[in-house]
Design goal:
CATH class of the largest domain: Alpha Beta
Largest sheet: 6 strands, antiparallel
CATH architecture of the largest domain: 3-Layer(aba) Sandwich
Shape: globular
Radius of gyration: 24 Å
Number of strands: 19
Strand content: 15-25%
Strand order of the largest sheet: 2-3-1-9-8-11
Structural class: alpha/beta
Number of domains: 3
CATH superfamily of the largest domain: HUPs
CATH topology of the largest domain: Rossmann fold
Oligomer: single chain
């Protein structure tokens, strides 16, 4: 896992210019790749790389070039893991390809040489990569099917800029951090529109897409998308197929030449992953799995139920699952001082390049990942299971399912109207219409199955919305925060084979026992103790210490005493003062607007964001 950057400029010879732009771009993503750095420059392209070594530790140096006397160079920079690289190596060798290293980067380069733009269809994994072909002076950008690895770009008069993070593009001086009304809407709407990158002039390459850059311009092509197909397996076969897929996926994703673990919350998703991983390691005679959970000082004993989001604390369940699986378990316990430390707040902001919409849950995730990184380099996580198998409450509540909008908008604090902006700006932003437009766009994309039962058709829509609009925000959050501490996080439930199969499994099977994630629970039943397999869905935990809220309120008061700067002109001071007068409950939902205001202000000050409205 790594970070990539680059630029294409058709108006000058980059070999005759100072490479400071490329070096500056590479330096911005240094935390993504602490094990190596590289820069490659030719007449019209500059490609940079930072490496986190996971496979082929001594080889695999990037940028990697294929050179031959009768052919101009082909160069690749790559971020991700191709899980089927060994199978591809055998296939490519049978076609006459020869290799000098043992990793997946060289395999990916030769796969491009063999299949060209069709290369992505041969890959099973998580990836974002760029290939510069000197013969044609064209750049190919490729992103994985689910959008697990990020890839940002900006079109310039000279060509294009690209990178794993927005900060890399800003380092060139060719694009500035500015935000317009649509950017502010994306921050506040709780919907991640595919392709939108918040900043003016910047985009994300869409999941499952490739982009070719040439002197003629840019062309974008989709190579994968969710498809509607008839599900012909009965329930027992479906359960068996889900189990078989998960076993194969977890086995694939345990391949690494560095220490590896599992993020264990004690919920169904992470516990299933941990159980399968431990079983695989044990069968191969390898040491016990490392597992990791997060908790807060005193919170397990003084836990407060938070509406539909969490009925129980994670720590006791995670510990029980670790004992059941026989893993080496570490509990990362945080307190409010850890969470409020200025260095931690700054690091979390720098990781995401955006204000932390999830507030304290982003900060605690950063601290969790930082602690995990001191033990392992790779961790498996449960992201995607709720979106795929129907884990969220909003997939089971009639008023949420039937609402003509994104179903999570019905929940207590995931409402697009919950924003701290001035009335005038809020009127300009018109979030209700913006969300309505984004919803209509998403619904128009949903693949249909002729003759499908109306309820099944609606649940297919809900599944599509969860996978393409809600999950995308979580995947971006996990990638950006984990890579800021040099930790690679893999997501087995986002394997495209499993996603395609379960997406087309009828809702009646996904909820056959009347509960959330019935299908996954049945597939993992024999792996888990009853307390885990029957546990109700709990979202990622939030700190409940009232002292944390008191500190936030103090920050808001100090911020509002400033005259200008940051987000002060965008914020409704009267509304924020009114919120400060409400009694603190220590619950995330009651402080989310305050946290967003603080984070928005810090983001605009730190990045010098210009508001273009």
């Amino acid at each position: 896992m790594c970070g990539i950057v680059g630029l294409v400029d058709y108006t000058c010879d980059l070999r005759n210019t100072n490479t400071v732009n490329g070096e500056a771009m590479v330096e911005t993503i240094a935390l993504r790749g602490p094990d190596g750095s590289g820069l490659w420059v030719t007449a019209h392209a500059m490609l940079g790389h930072r490496r986190l070594a996971v496979i082929d530790l001594k080889g695999g140096v990037q940028p990697m070039a294929y050179t031959r006397a009768d052919r101009p160079a082909v160069v690749i920079v790559y971020n991700g893991e191709v899980y089927n690289y060994r199978e591809l190596r055998s296939e490519l060798a049978s076609l006459g390809h020869e290799f000098r290293s043992g990793g997946d980067t060289e395999i990916l380069l030769h796969a491009y040489l063999e299949w060209g733009e069709d290369v992505a269809t041969h890959l099973d994994g998580i990836f974002a990569f760029a290939v510069w072909d000197e013969a044609t002076e064209e750049l190919l950008l490729v992103r994985d099917r689910l959008g697990i690895k990020p890839l940002y770009y900006a079109v310039t008069p000279e060509g294009v800029l690209f990178g794993s993070e927005p900060k890399a593009l800003f380092a060139t001086g060719r694009i500035e951090p500015a935000v317009d009304l649509d950017g502010l809407r994306e921050l506040a709407a709780m919907v991640k529109t595919p392709g939108a990158a918040v900043f003016v002039g910047m985009r994300e390459l869409l999941p499952g897409h490739i982009m070719r850059v040439s002197r003629r311009g840019l062309t974008e092509t989709r190579y994968w998308s969710l498809q509607a197909t008839e599900h012909t397996d009965d329930l027992p076969d479906t359960i068996a197929n889900v189990r078989a897929l998960l076993e194969d996926i977890v086995r694939q994703q345990l391949v690494a030449e560095v220490p590896l673990g599992v993020l264990l919350s004690g919920g169904l998703d992470s516990s299933t992953t941990a159980a399968l991983a431990q079983r695989t390691l044990r069968a191969e005679g390898l040491p016990a799995l490392r597992t990791f959970a997060v908790d807060f000082v005193g919170q397990t004993g003084d836990f407060k139920v938070e509406q539909i989001f969490r009925d129980t604390p994670d720590a006791p369940y995670a510990a029980e699952m670790a004992r059941h699986a026989g893993s080496r378990h570490t509990e990362v316990v945080l307190d409010k001082a850890d969470m409020l430390a200025p260095a931690v707040q700054e690091a979390t902001l720098a990781a995401r390049d955006l204000p932390a919409v999830w507030g304290d849950m982003d900060t605690s995730l950063y601290l969790l990942f930082k602690a995990v990184r001191s033990h392992v380099t790779v961790a498996l996580a449960g992201e995607g299971a709720d979106e795929l198998f129907g884990g969220y409450a909003w997939s089971h509540l009639a008023h949420a399912v039937d609402a003509p909008t994104f179903p999570w908008m019905s929940t207590a604090y995931l409402k697009s109207e919950n924003s701290p902006f001035t009335p005038a700006l809020a009127k300009q932003m018109d979030l209700r219409d913006y969300v309505g437009d984004r919803y209509a766009q998403a619904i128009a994309e949903v693949p249909r199955l002729a003759g499908e039962d109306p309820r099944e058709a609606r649940m297919r829509e809900v599944s599509y919305l969860n996978l393409t609009r809600f999950l995308q925000g979580l995947l971006d959050r996990v990638d950006r925060i984990s890579m800021s501490v040099g930790l690679e996080v893999r997501v087995p439930f986002c394997d495209h084979r499993l996603v395609s199969y379960v997406f087309n499994t009828p809702w009646a099977m996904k909820s056959f026992d009347g509960r959330e994630k019935s299908l996954l629970r049945a597939a993992a039943q024999d792996l888990l103790p009853p307390s885990i397999s029957q546990r109700k869905k709990a979202h990622y935990p939030a700190i409940q210490d009232p002292g944390y809220d008191d500190a936030l309120r103090s920050q808001i008061r100090d911020m509002l005493t400033q005259k200008t700067g940051g987000a002060l002109e965008l914020l409704d001071h009267e509304h924020l003062h009114a919120l400060l007068e409400r009694p603190s409950t220590g619950l995330h939902a009651d402080r989310s607007v305050l946290e967003f205001a603080i984070n928005l202000h810090a983001w605009m000050e730190t990045y010098g964001v210009r508001v273009a409205i």
